[in-house]
Amino acid sequence: MADRRKGLRLVLDVPKIAYAFEVSANPEPKLRDLKTREQKVDRDSGLPMWSTELTVKTTNGAQVILVTTLGHTVPSVSLGEMVEPVDLEALPWTNTDANGQVRSGVAFKATELRAMVPANA
Prior knowledge:
The protein is 3% helix and 50% strand. It has 121 residues and is mainly beta. Strands 1-8-9-6-5-2 form a six-stranded mixed beta sheet, with no helix packed on it. Strands 3-4 form a two-stranded antiparallel sheet. It is globular. The relative contact order is 0.22.
């Protein structure tokens, strides 16, 4: 299996896939261990990882996604704020649990969640 960090990057064309991204839950540390509440860090940069729930609004409806960002401090976005995920990347994944069940999905990563400035500001 190819190393996903060095393989094909699926960077999404944000303006083509959605017309709005709204923060639907405040950013939280991405946890490595639920019991100790130890925060995950990125293997390459050593930076702490943060998860932010976004509602993606399209012409066909809406979907909620979790977007991971890296940084020493929590992303400076808040509930209800419209944001632009910079360099939004889709990371397909598959794993097999202890019972042999295969699970798969798509994780999302962005270099930054940039607050959108209202048009009348």
